[in-house]
Amino acid sequence: MQTPGVTEDPIDRRPLHEEAADRLRAMITDGRLPAGARLNERVLCDQLRVSRTPLREAFKRLAAERLIELTPNRGARVIALARADVEELFELMGALEGLSGELAAQRRSEAELAEIRALHYEMLAAHARRDLPAYYAMNQRIHDALNRCARNGALTETYDSINTRIQHLRFRSNFDAAKWAVAVREHQAMLDALDARDGARLRAVLEQHLRTKCDAVLAHWNDGEAR
Question: Mind listing the domains of the chain with CATH numbers?
Fold first, then answer.
Protein backbone atom coordinates (compact mmCIF):
# COMPACT_ATOMS: atom_id res chain seq x y z
CA MET A 1 0.00 0.00 0.00
CA GLN A 2 1.39 3.37 -0.99
CA THR A 3 1.80 6.00 1.74
CA PRO A 4 -0.27 9.15 0.96
CA GLY A 5 1.86 11.95 -0.40
CA VAL A 6 4.84 9.66 -1.18
CA THR A 7 5.75 8.91 -4.78
CA GLU A 8 7.44 5.57 -5.33
CA ASP A 9 10.39 5.28 -7.69
CA PRO A 10 9.48 3.67 -11.01
CA ILE A 11 10.56 0.09 -11.63
CA ASP A 12 13.78 0.12 -13.62
CA ARG A 13 13.17 -1.53 -16.98
CA ARG A 14 15.65 -1.57 -19.84
CA PRO A 15 14.48 -0.15 -23.17
CA LEU A 16 13.33 -2.85 -25.55
CA HIS A 17 15.91 -1.96 -28.19
CA GLU A 18 18.71 -2.57 -25.67
CA GLU A 19 17.37 -6.03 -24.92
CA ALA A 20 17.12 -6.71 -28.65
CA ALA A 21 20.70 -5.48 -29.19
CA ASP A 22 21.96 -7.82 -26.44
CA ARG A 23 20.16 -10.78 -28.03
CA LEU A 24 21.50 -9.99 -31.48
CA ARG A 25 25.02 -9.51 -30.10
CA ALA A 26 24.85 -12.94 -28.48
CA MET A 27 23.60 -14.48 -31.73
CA ILE A 28 26.57 -13.01 -33.58
CA THR A 29 28.99 -14.23 -30.91
CA ASP A 30 27.83 -17.85 -30.94
CA GLY A 31 27.49 -18.01 -34.71
CA ARG A 32 23.72 -18.14 -35.11
CA LEU A 33 24.19 -14.99 -37.17
CA PRO A 34 27.45 -15.69 -39.04
CA ALA A 35 29.76 -13.20 -40.72
CA GLY A 36 28.23 -11.82 -43.89
CA ALA A 37 24.68 -12.92 -42.99
CA ARG A 38 21.83 -10.70 -44.14
CA LEU A 39 19.50 -9.73 -41.30
CA ASN A 40 15.86 -10.36 -42.18
CA GLU A 41 13.75 -7.92 -40.19
CA ARG A 42 10.54 -9.94 -40.35
CA VAL A 43 12.24 -13.15 -39.18
CA LEU A 44 14.11 -11.38 -36.39
CA CYS A 45 11.00 -9.54 -35.20
CA ASP A 46 9.26 -12.90 -34.83
CA GLN A 47 12.26 -14.51 -33.21
CA LEU A 48 12.92 -11.71 -30.72
CA ARG A 49 9.23 -10.84 -30.28
CA VAL A 50 9.71 -7.15 -30.94
CA SER A 51 8.32 -4.73 -33.48
CA ARG A 52 10.41 -3.21 -36.24
CA THR A 53 11.02 0.08 -34.40
CA PRO A 54 13.10 -1.36 -31.50
CA LEU A 55 14.75 -3.82 -33.90
CA ARG A 56 15.94 -1.00 -36.11
CA GLU A 57 17.18 0.91 -33.06
CA ALA A 58 19.11 -2.23 -32.07
CA PHE A 59 20.56 -2.36 -35.59
CA LYS A 60 21.80 1.23 -35.19
CA ARG A 61 23.53 0.36 -31.92
CA LEU A 62 25.24 -2.71 -33.40
CA ALA A 63 26.26 -0.68 -36.44
CA ALA A 64 27.90 1.87 -34.12
CA GLU A 65 29.78 -1.06 -32.51
CA ARG A 66 30.85 -2.16 -36.02
CA LEU A 67 29.22 -5.56 -35.66
CA ILE A 68 26.80 -5.00 -38.54
CA GLU A 69 26.61 -2.61 -41.45
CA LEU A 70 23.53 -0.80 -42.70
CA THR A 71 23.20 -0.18 -46.43
CA PRO A 72 20.45 2.06 -47.90
CA ASN A 73 17.83 -0.01 -49.73
CA ARG A 74 19.70 -3.23 -48.94
CA GLY A 75 19.17 -3.59 -45.21
CA ALA A 76 21.62 -4.88 -42.64
CA ARG A 77 24.23 -7.63 -42.61
CA VAL A 78 26.80 -8.94 -40.15
CA ILE A 79 30.23 -7.47 -40.85
CA ALA A 80 32.76 -9.96 -42.18
CA LEU A 81 36.33 -9.31 -41.09
CA ALA A 82 39.25 -9.93 -43.40
CA ARG A 83 42.30 -11.86 -42.16
CA ALA A 84 44.30 -8.63 -41.81
CA ASP A 85 41.50 -7.14 -39.68
CA VAL A 86 41.60 -10.15 -37.36
CA GLU A 87 45.36 -9.95 -36.95
CA GLU A 88 45.27 -6.22 -36.21
CA LEU A 89 42.36 -6.45 -33.75
CA PHE A 90 43.89 -9.32 -31.78
CA GLU A 91 47.26 -7.53 -31.71
CA LEU A 92 45.60 -4.44 -30.26
CA MET A 93 43.44 -6.49 -27.89
CA GLY A 94 46.53 -8.27 -26.59
CA ALA A 95 48.11 -4.95 -25.69
CA LEU A 96 44.92 -3.76 -23.97
CA GLU A 97 44.54 -7.03 -22.04
CA GLY A 98 48.19 -6.88 -21.03
CA LEU A 99 47.95 -3.34 -19.65
CA SER A 100 44.66 -4.19 -17.95
CA GLY A 101 46.27 -7.20 -16.25
CA GLU A 102 49.36 -5.29 -15.13
CA LEU A 103 47.23 -2.59 -13.50
CA ALA A 104 44.80 -5.15 -12.05
CA ALA A 105 47.61 -6.98 -10.27
CA GLN A 106 48.61 -3.74 -8.56
CA ARG A 107 45.13 -2.46 -7.75
CA ARG A 108 42.86 -5.45 -7.13
CA SER A 109 41.30 -5.96 -3.73
CA GLU A 110 41.04 -9.24 -1.85
CA ALA A 111 37.29 -9.27 -2.54
CA GLU A 112 37.92 -8.89 -6.27
CA LEU A 113 40.49 -11.68 -6.19
CA ALA A 114 37.96 -13.93 -4.44
CA GLU A 115 35.31 -13.09 -7.05
CA ILE A 116 37.65 -13.92 -9.94
CA ARG A 117 38.74 -17.15 -8.26
CA ALA A 118 35.09 -18.19 -7.86
CA LEU A 119 34.41 -17.41 -11.53
CA HIS A 120 37.49 -19.43 -12.47
CA TYR A 121 36.19 -22.52 -10.68
CA GLU A 122 32.79 -22.14 -12.34
CA MET A 123 34.58 -21.91 -15.67
CA LEU A 124 36.54 -25.09 -14.92
CA ALA A 125 33.30 -26.91 -14.12
CA ALA A 126 31.82 -25.82 -17.46
CA HIS A 127 34.98 -27.01 -19.24
CA ALA A 128 34.72 -30.38 -17.54
CA ARG A 129 31.12 -30.68 -18.81
CA ARG A 130 32.23 -29.52 -22.28
CA ASP A 131 29.59 -26.81 -21.98
CA LEU A 132 31.11 -24.17 -24.26
CA PRO A 133 28.40 -21.47 -23.88
CA ALA A 134 28.59 -21.65 -20.06
CA TYR A 135 32.39 -21.76 -20.19
CA TYR A 136 32.52 -18.73 -22.43
CA ALA A 137 30.11 -16.77 -20.24
CA MET A 138 32.40 -17.31 -17.23
CA ASN A 139 35.43 -16.55 -19.37
CA GLN A 140 33.96 -13.19 -20.38
CA ARG A 141 33.13 -12.34 -16.79
CA ILE A 142 36.71 -13.10 -15.70
CA HIS A 143 38.23 -10.83 -18.34
CA ASP A 144 35.72 -8.09 -17.56
CA ALA A 145 36.47 -8.41 -13.82
CA LEU A 146 40.21 -8.11 -14.49
CA ASN A 147 39.55 -5.00 -16.52
CA ARG A 148 37.47 -3.47 -13.71
CA CYS A 149 40.34 -4.14 -11.29
CA ALA A 150 42.57 -1.91 -13.42
CA ARG A 151 40.42 1.09 -12.42
CA ASN A 152 41.05 3.01 -15.62
CA GLY A 153 37.91 4.30 -17.32
CA ALA A 154 39.59 5.24 -20.61
CA LEU A 155 41.17 1.79 -20.83
CA THR A 156 37.82 0.11 -20.16
CA GLU A 157 36.07 2.16 -22.85
CA THR A 158 38.66 1.24 -25.49
CA TYR A 159 38.81 -2.37 -24.28
CA ASP A 160 35.03 -2.81 -24.55
CA SER A 161 34.92 -1.29 -28.03
CA ILE A 162 37.57 -3.60 -29.49
CA ASN A 163 36.51 -6.67 -27.54
CA THR A 164 32.94 -6.42 -28.83
CA ARG A 165 34.20 -6.70 -32.41
CA ILE A 166 36.04 -9.98 -31.82
CA GLN A 167 33.76 -11.75 -29.33
CA HIS A 168 32.57 -14.21 -31.98
CA LEU A 169 36.18 -15.07 -32.82
CA ARG A 170 37.17 -15.54 -29.19
CA PHE A 171 34.19 -17.87 -28.80
CA ARG A 172 35.14 -20.03 -31.79
CA SER A 173 38.81 -20.23 -30.74
CA ASN A 174 37.70 -22.92 -28.26
CA PHE A 175 36.21 -25.22 -30.92
CA ASP A 176 39.48 -27.16 -31.02
CA ALA A 177 39.68 -29.33 -27.87
CA ALA A 178 43.48 -29.08 -27.56
CA LYS A 179 43.48 -25.30 -27.92
CA TRP A 180 40.60 -25.08 -25.45
CA ALA A 181 42.71 -26.97 -22.90
CA VAL A 182 45.60 -24.55 -23.49
CA ALA A 183 43.26 -21.61 -22.81
CA VAL A 184 42.20 -23.20 -19.50
CA ARG A 185 45.84 -23.57 -18.41
CA GLU A 186 46.52 -19.97 -19.33
CA HIS A 187 43.59 -18.89 -17.16
CA GLN A 188 45.11 -20.74 -14.22
CA ALA A 189 48.38 -18.87 -14.83
CA MET A 190 46.43 -15.58 -14.86
CA LEU A 191 44.87 -16.36 -11.50
CA ASP A 192 48.24 -17.31 -10.00
CA ALA A 193 49.82 -14.05 -11.19
CA LEU A 194 46.89 -11.98 -9.95
CA ASP A 195 47.10 -13.70 -6.56
CA ALA A 196 50.85 -12.95 -6.36
CA ARG A 197 50.30 -9.33 -7.48
CA ASP A 198 52.85 -10.00 -10.22
CA GLY A 199 51.85 -7.43 -12.83
CA ALA A 200 54.64 -8.21 -15.30
CA ARG A 201 53.79 -11.92 -15.29
CA LEU A 202 50.07 -11.31 -15.62
CA ARG A 203 50.68 -8.95 -18.54
CA ALA A 204 52.82 -11.56 -20.29
CA VAL A 205 50.26 -14.33 -19.74
CA LEU A 206 47.38 -12.21 -21.07
CA GLU A 207 49.34 -11.14 -24.14
CA GLN A 208 50.22 -14.78 -24.84
CA HIS A 209 46.59 -15.75 -24.25
CA LEU A 210 45.45 -13.40 -27.04
CA ARG A 211 48.19 -14.63 -29.39
CA THR A 212 47.05 -18.21 -28.76
CA LYS A 213 43.45 -17.28 -29.53
CA CYS A 214 44.42 -15.44 -32.70
CA ASP A 215 46.47 -18.45 -33.86
CA ALA A 216 43.50 -20.74 -33.15
CA VAL A 217 41.18 -18.55 -35.23
CA LEU A 218 43.58 -18.22 -38.15
CA ALA A 219 44.67 -21.87 -38.17
CA HIS A 220 41.72 -22.82 -40.39
CA TRP A 221 41.25 -19.48 -42.12
CA ASN A 222 40.86 -19.44 -45.88
CA ASP A 223 40.10 -16.91 -48.60
CA GLY A 224 36.36 -17.39 -48.21
CA GLU A 225 36.35 -17.12 -44.43
CA ALA A 226 35.41 -13.44 -44.37
CA ARG A 227 32.09 -14.28 -46.01
Answer: 16-78 (1.10.10.10), 83-218 (1.20.120.530)
